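From the pipeline queue, job 12 of 40. The input is one protein chain; the requested action is below.

Action: predict structure.
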Amino acid sequence: MPPPTVWILGSGFSKPLGGPLLDDLLSDATNALVDAIYPTLIEPSRPVSAEHADAAAALQVVRTLFSTHGPVARGNYHQRFWSDAEAFLDYVDAAAQSGVPANIFLDSVASRVGVRDVRVDGLRHAGRRLVAAACCAFLHAAIPMQERWKPYRSWAEALNPSDTIVTFNYDRVLELLKAFDIFVPGEARPDGARPVVFKLHGSVDWARKKQGDGTFVYSLGRGDAEGAPVDPEFALTCPVEEIGIATPGPTKEISTEELGPVWRRALERIKTAEVIVFVGYRFPPSDAEAREKLLGAIRENANARIDVHTVLGPRQHADDVVRLAQMLKAVLRLAGRKETAVNNAAPSYWVATHALYAEDFFTVWNRDLLRPYDHRGNQ
């Protein structure tokens, strides 16, 4: 059996298949795709309830605020209040949590672009719905047998129960590959016959249900009928409080606590892994909790040797690439490990940076690439 290996996936994993990066969630291109796939999401084509109309209006307000004062800052107002979609969603969520000052600011900004009587909590819900739509749209009619999926299929087929997938993505790329067991807190536990996936920030097909004792349980989202199949786009039609994803902002911490069973098992796998591979994940600066927990688990790993690989694209000197490698090396050094490319010292580690996109790496990778020496420590 190969050494226990944990694959940590971020939005860069899904990007070659059409998935949006975090910064692209509210971009013009993503909005255009969402509108084309879900034309009734923003502007219902038939009479709807007042609640539905308010929700559709809130979606439009979110887009207007971000396009006017986001990274492009277009129109008659050129103030750039938010550098990317993550910063904007984080601010709206914080405004809904904190109260008056942020609410006043958002109301003022909205009035300057012709929007009145903004409900900040409604904007927060609208932002979450738009994130979910972006993560559903590129897979709406996906055909995993298409050529661009081939590297992903080959990778998935080469894995075995010694591999664990830890992902921050909300999308269903891994589900469509049909090679994994997804750990869902409120569902039956995987039997260990296939690689297990831990979705740390939830999924677009998960439902967040409040229990009688006030706690929340996450399970697969289904229709109202008894025995209804899983709805792969549950987050687009369910009540907003049932959307099972943790989006940027203060409420992400609450969601992380609710998803505690997923996090605990994922961190346990990281603590026992001999190989860790980061694919398209960079520890977003705003996600302090994920950074602290994952780096803490790596530091607590008790194996004599840890090999770590990063795959963030061909620009090896890009800020995100350098930052990720330096964080990993720092935490491994703090654990008392020696940096060495060969397995002749303990405790030791090696961080390898691959100048490849995800699809490139999956085309060329094999077990020898992840741990290129035998049990005697020879290269």
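Job complete. The longest strand covers residues 202-210.
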